[in-house]
Design a protein that fits this description.
This protein has 338 residues and is α+β, with helices and mostly antiparallel strands. It folds into 2 domains: 93 residues, Hypothetical Oxidoreductase Yiak, Chain: A, domain 1 (Orthogonal Bundle); 196 residues, Ribosomal Protein S8, Chain: A, domain 1. It is built from 13 helices and 12 strands. Helix 4 links the parallel strand 3 and strand 4. It is globular. The mean pLDDT is 96. The structure holds NADPH dihydro-nicotinamide-adenine-dinucleotide phosphate. The site of NADPH dihydro-nicotinamide-adenine-dinucleotide phosphate has 23 residues, from strand 8 and helix 12. This is Ldh family oxidoreductase. Keywords: Oxidoreductase.
Length: 338
Amino acid sequence: MSDSVVLSLAEADSLAREVLEAWGLAPDHAAAVAATMVAGERDGCTSHGLYRLLVATASVEKGVVNPAAVPEVSEPAPALVRVDGKGGFAQLPFSKGLPLLVEKAKAKGIAAMALNNSVHFAALWPEVEALAAEGLVALAFTPNHAWVAPAGGTKPVFGTNPLAFAWPRPGREPFVFDFATTVIARGDIELHRRAGKPVPEDWGYDAQGNPTTDAKSVLDGAMRTFGGHKGSALAAMIELIAGPLIGDMTSAQSIAVDAGRGGSPLGGELIIAIDPAGFLGDRVDEYLAHGETMFAAIEGQGARLPGTRRLAARRESLAKGLAIPAAFHAEILDLLQK
Ligand code: NDP
């Protein structure tokens, strides 16, 4: 028996939707979540790919997410969109608010969208990429659960707090980066724990605040931000602008609300969209060309742009489909039996 199963993107999408609908998500909710998972799998971001079906269904089982959520879109100010996710997964409120965010950014030059009361478990690049596809510059931020110590401290205050940025490029895919503000992803520490492998001493602290190379002790203690005080300040900024600023929870509040269930984090996300034409008018092409000069200077010396690996994986998946380990495929099919 082959040890992998190859699915077309359409087959993966319909399988993911089928599982999520079997777990009680409404069709639009399931479709929005499935699209992000398939995009993650397609782009070689497997930690946010179909594997997340296991995480999403576990969150439904633990009662952390509202599978029947019907998001509510509102306009608190002329350039602001708010979508209350009503406790559902963040992809649904994002998809509901996106058209209005684009419309406002194009009308006003800049607009922002708050997703509130939503369960996040995903990568942020699909969201900023969707805005860049509309010719907009985009930024996205979200806190999650307090697992990360501030620089100079050893106790959890921040989430792993990812940020993402997208810049539209004429005639080609946008420049996109998207990463957490920690030294390393929490999932990597978990993988070390499972493999019984030590972690580098600069990844985190144990619960007593001592540096440690024991993965489980870091998971039970505190992770570190990247770049010392710089990553720490960015993590604090993300807590503020995607928490209190938009009337939502900090990572410390969100983990308290989870009350030990170990579900995906509930909270907010802030997305900012800027229309280059707002500043540049009909000189957009001229100035975007200056950006291209910078990209050429980076790549011209052999350095790679963020997103290059992901886009190469995308091309490969589009050509060959998605190869899923057979055992994992069987696990997904099992989810249909629940
Ligand atoms: P990484 O540290 O793997 O960094 C990813 C980014 O850096 C990508 O844009 C990647 O581009 C780029 N990159 C990586 N290596 C290089 C290199 N050598 N040169 C240039 N660019 C490079 O990401 P994280 O582990 O911190 O985060 C992974 C994902 O997890 C993100 O999508 C993030 O949003 C998500 N996440 C979500 C959370 C949530 O609460 N929702 C919490 C934490 C993380 P490329 O893809 O092309 O390699």
